[in-house]
Amino acid sequence: MNIKNYINGKFLPPIANGWIDNFNPAIGEVYGQIPNSTKEDVEKAVEAAEKAFPSWITTTLEERSKILSKIADLILEKLDFLAAAESKDNGKPISLAKAVDIPRAASNFQFFANAITQFSSEAYESVGLNAINFTLRQPLGIVGCISPWNLPLYLFTWKIAPAIAAGNCVIAKPSEITPMTAYLLGEICTEAGLPKGVLNIVHGLGTSTGQAIVEHPNIKAISFTGGTKTGAHIASIAAPMFKKLSLELGGKNPNIIFADCDYNKMLETTVRSSFANQGQICLCGSRIFVEETIYEKFKKDFIKKVSELKVGNPSETNTNIGALVSKQHLEKVKSYIDLAAQENTEILFGGNRVVVENSENGYYLQPTIIEVKDNKCRLNQEEIFGPVVTIMSFKTDEEALTLANDTKYGLSATLWTNNLNRTMQFAKQLHTGIVWVNTWMLRDLRTPFGGQKDSGIGREGGFEALRFFTEPKNICIKY
Ligand code: NAD
């Protein structure tokens, strides 16, 4: 099936007529093509957005809210269809796409449909000076939204929904590795009555299509989620152009387990936080640190639970671990497993490719647990972004905190303890944007979402996102 660009409400082939193969990772075969868009396609999208902006900026909040709600409703109506498409494109279990990815994409639109009706300009009375200030929050104009392959529709809509809710017109690019649900979103937006040109979806490679979006002088902001290296490159282009930037980048998140935790809840959640979506979630707890007194017990129980996970074709409902997203990514993850032998570490479970019946060429890998002795090893310092976790013991709170913070990344951390004092000490001293205590990936869309250090700059979610997609302008009136 050939995917097309969605520009000015129409589905268009790429101007230069270049195409890229799209793979089904469950069977390792090409099943369609996507536009290899060039600067010219991006230019056409910008022209459409510029034409749409004057009218979109004047739509009432009620009208915008209604359209966003309608998009949310249509996504839910097509839940099964979209989940199947996401699973086929990405390799994730269909059950996961149905329970998490697609419902969350709908929630993103519904959340910002509501949030925009509560977002308002601020006013400040300058008492004693006979003056009043009010701060307008005006849309930026045309903005760029660029997203990765791990949670395709989920992260794509997490950017688009606040951008259009705030009154901007959008040029969006999904990952070239998982373009399908972004393509289907175009149809949904038309059906929901989103005026043409408000959202334009341009497909293609990061280094050409993505780069053209970042470089375009009329695109005022870039909201990007993806790898740290890509984020740094984007910043090097966008920052000198004084574009607003939101960068949600990689992670190497610690999962810190104390003996006083609720053990069964911790064990069950740790299996999920390690291997959900084949470990391809930026929030996965890939470095597990366990208090020495329960280390041996945890090791035994964790290995047992992980050995029960079923690796299989993502379209089967009893599959826990589907296919990795691409051959290239499978090879990257495998190269880290191969490092284990050189790094004085031990593979406790997994480490091998899995051949799945009737899907022999798919990109399957066993969930893998590696015991490490030192947090400085590459396995503990570099983002693997696959079904691979390391485990290591610690003795004291101070040691656990030092280990947790000993990484260039700072996205999230998970802490398992029932000690309130320890919880507060860690909450204050962990160098991450998000700390989960006795839970993982519990999301309230009002909260600020993002990372510190090499995990990025800026925060998404709630009013933070609406502030990002608007320019504050202060007006001071003397009376
Ligand atoms: P990536 O950086 O390779 O690509 C992300 C997107 O950027 C894709 O759409 C790609 O085409 C585009 N791109 C690549 N080069 C570009 C360029 N020069 N200019 C403009 N766009 C360009 O990342 P990926 O491999 O798709 O995703 C995995 C990474 O994403 C991991 O590092 C993961 O941690 C990160 N991630 C972060 C979060 C978060 O919220 N912090 C969430 C999900 C994924």
Structural account:
The chain has helices at residues 39-56, 61-77, 79-90, 94-115, 152-165, 180-192, 206-215, 228-238, 263-275, 292-307, 327-339, 378-381, 397-405, 420-429, 462-468, and strands at 5-7, 10-12, 19-24, 29-35, 122-126, 131-139, 142-146, 169-173, 199-201, 219-225, 244-248, 254-257, 287-291, 346-349, 368-371, 388-394, 409-410, 412-416, 434-437, 452-453, 456-457, 470-478. The chain is of the alpha/beta class and 479 residues long. Helix 9 packs across helix 10. It folds into 2 domains: 5-249 and 455-478, Aldehyde Dehydrogenase, Chain A, domain 1, CATH 3.40.605; 254-446, Aldehyde Dehydrogenase, Chain A, domain 2, CATH 3.40.309. Helix 8 links the parallel strand 10 and strand 11. Bound molecules: nicotinamide-adenine-dinucleotide. Residues 146-150, 155, 173, 175-176, 206-207, 210-211, 214, 225-227, 230, 233-234, 248-251, 282, 383, 385, 411, 451, 455-456 line the site of nicotinamide-adenine-dinucleotide (NAD). This is 2-hydroxymuconic semialdehyde dehydrogenase. GO terms for molecular function: oxidoreductase activity, acting on the aldehyde or oxo group of donors, NAD or NADP as acceptor.
**Any idea of the CATH topology of the largest domain?**
Aldehyde Dehydrogenase, Chain A, domain 1
Strand segment count = 22
Question: How many structural domains are formed by the residues?
Answer: 2
Strand order of the largest sheet: 14-15-16-13-12-18-19
Can you identify the CATH class of the largest domain?
Answer: Alpha Beta
Rg calc: 23 Å
Helix fraction bin: 25-40%
Number of continuous helical runs? 15
> What is the percentage of strand-forming residues?
15-25%
What does the main sheet amount to? 7 strands, mixed
Please, what is the CATH homologous superfamily of the largest domain? Aldehyde Dehydrogenase, Chain A, domain 1
- CATH second-level architecture of the largest domain: 3-Layer(aba) Sandwich
Structural class: alpha/beta
Mean pLDDT: 98
Q: Give the distinct bound molecules.
A: nicotinamide-adenine-dinucleotide
The outline comes out as globular
Assembly status = single chain
Measure the end-to-end span.
65 Å
